[in-house]
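tool_call: predict_structure(chain=1)
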Amino acid sequence: MAVQSTALLLFLSLLLSSPVVIFTLAAALPREQETDRVSALPGQPPVAFSQFSGYVTVNKQEGRALFYWLTEATSSPEKKPLLLWLNGGPGCSSVAYGASEEIGPFRVNKTGSSLYMNKYSWNTEANLLFLESPAGVGFSYTNTSSNLKDSGDNRTAADALVFLTRWMSRFPQYQHRDFYISGESYAGHYVPQLAKAIHDYNKRHSNPIINLKGFIVGNAVTDNYYDSLGTVAYWWTHSLISDATYKSILNNCNFTSDNSSNQCDDAVNYATNYELGNIDAYSIYTPSCLSSTNGTIRVKNTLLRRRISGYDPCTENYAEKYYNRPDVQKALHANVTGIPYKWTACSDVLIKNWKDSQNSMLPTYKELIATGLRIWVFSGDTDSVVPVTATRFALHHLNLTIKTRWYPWYSGNQVGGWTEVYDGLTFATVRGAGHEVPLFQPKRAFILFKSFLAGKELPKS
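tool_result:
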């Protein structure tokens, strides 16, 4: 044994003194990556997986930098794919929603003093990368104040692509790794737009580092006309509005135009202010958060123009308490520039000043389907803001060939939802879930995600 130990020590000594090995180790673990390592968050239970968070500058001239938080897989992270999660709004935080109340490993307790574990965290299956995008959302910032009032779809996708390429230079172990994108709500724009940007970028490079395999998006804003029509149909078929109001909206609202008539505004205002009542429009059968007024519909006819905010249960309030704590920000390497406003789950400034918004994502879907990417779209069926009817109306007009007809899929012995598989796209509903599917039905959302990653149809029994 002594001879073996001596030999081992000699081998290690030679190994560590080798300049080639030192260069390789340095290349594999850039200094910036280690600087971004999170040892532990305040009030966090012990975990075995690694975490990193910090900033990536996407536009040096204008001072735009995006904040990210990576929670690696709970086991064999080097073998697991990388999933980028984006929340919508436009202007809502992936840290507030995706990470803290949906698919991330931690939940924030009611007092904002500590964290507890999420049993159905998606980081058991993948490395999760949460991005606060665009600049002005959450901890992401810009030094050009006008950026907060001129954001839109195009710059958001362009900045996210720059972020990914620079982030992967900082984390070279994820280069060429199987990569997926996911999100919800207005990320119905962000996700396919970024997928297209990556696809176009990869065509221009012989050995692209972003190995995009597909995307999965939920309760997704997809097409202005069909989304609006489907939303009003959902309200009526779920007895949220009267026959008279339903007819008035259909007769007076031109869903193909960005301009609204007074008659249309009156009809929609009457529906939202008098008929829907004080419910959580993002989850019509669950109690609304009485400590916050943000859970009600905050916009009038612009609701039908898809300018909507993220789901707003009381858990958002807990997140705002937690992420505004100086010790939490220090642990996350966040707010390093001292942004002149509190961290919030959604930015009203961005929501109200969004500039360019693609009217329909259907042409982008057609283009991406042709590339062979794995594409899944899902809908929680108790959301009245981007409801299942809206998504079905939109997807129907892709005119896809059915491969597997509509059937119920199962979570244990219960129906988890319904699904239909098309040539190039899978659609699924999640029974009993609101706008944030993993919040309301975490187990069913987890089964959905595992099936997506495996490229398998949802369980029939």
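agent: The chain has two domains: 28-225+315-343+357-454, 226-306. Proceeding to next step.
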